[in-house]
Amino acid sequence: MGKRGLRASRARVEAAVPSGWQAQKSASTRNLIIEAAIRCFVELGYGQTTTTRIAEMAGLSRGAMLHHFPSKIDIVRAAVEYLHAKRLKAFRNSIGSIPADADRVSYAVESYWRHINHPWFMAFFELSVAARTDSELRDILMPAQRAFEREWDLTAREIFPEWEDPDAFELALDLTRCLMEGMAMSFMTHDPSERDRRLLAYLEHKLHELREQPRGAGPTGGDAA
After folding, report:
1. Model's pTM, two decimal places?
2. What CA–CA distance (Å, rounded) separates 130 from 107?
3. How far is CA 31 from CA 55, 71, 94, 122, 167, in A?
4. Are 186 and 224 in contact (CB under 8 A)?
5. What whole-number percentage of the chain has pLDDT above 90?
């Protein structure tokens, strides 16, 4: 390769460096905006979250933020995807690290309890409430939530292959999510108490029953009708 060819090759390499750096910077700024939006949902509520407040939370000018997200609903769409990805990763990491000699049911209950008391879940709850009367938000949230639930179910089945009865396992998942997520939501109006520990202990007891249930048995452990 001649000198001209070397110079041209070097120029292409040098031109690619700023481009790659710019893409990385852009992705970092987008994540900064998304995380600021999530903090706004938790601290201010969805109704009080505006592009101006998000920009302030992110430490950016509103114009700089709108360069990445032209409207609030664009930020919301990205935030929902970001939230679900983070929640699923956290769930997989916490449950997937269960020690070999641990009570897997008890460990799973404690892990998921920590998960749903994280601000990520509170942000999701805030969006869910707002979606009841906001059709545009609901159109974003509902399909994203269905996709998350499918992944959550697949992840749980990968992590707990020892359950013999698939119907009992599905019931265990539904019982866990409905009870624990409802409990977490109730903290909007009351502080954690001994009652919560009793409910979690009862949940563990019922989950152990379901785990030991033979394939084909009914939901209470008896013969299926």
Report:
1. 0.74
2. 33
3. 12, 16, 23, 19, 39
4. no
5. 35
Q: Which helix (H) or strand (E) holds 16?
A: helix 3-43
CA 14 to CA 75: how far, in whole Å?
A: 33
- Provide the CA 135 distance to its chain's centre, in angstroms: 21
Q: Distance between CA atoms of 221 and 115, rounded to whole angstroms?
A: 29
Q: How far is CA 85 from CA 98, 154, 191, in A?
A: 21, 14, 28
**What pLDDT was estimated at residue 22?**
66
pLDDT at residue 223, as a whole number: 46
Separation of alpha carbons 136 and 128, rounded Å: 12
Instruction: Express the helix, strand and coil content of the chain in percent, nearest 5 each.
Output: 75, 0, 25
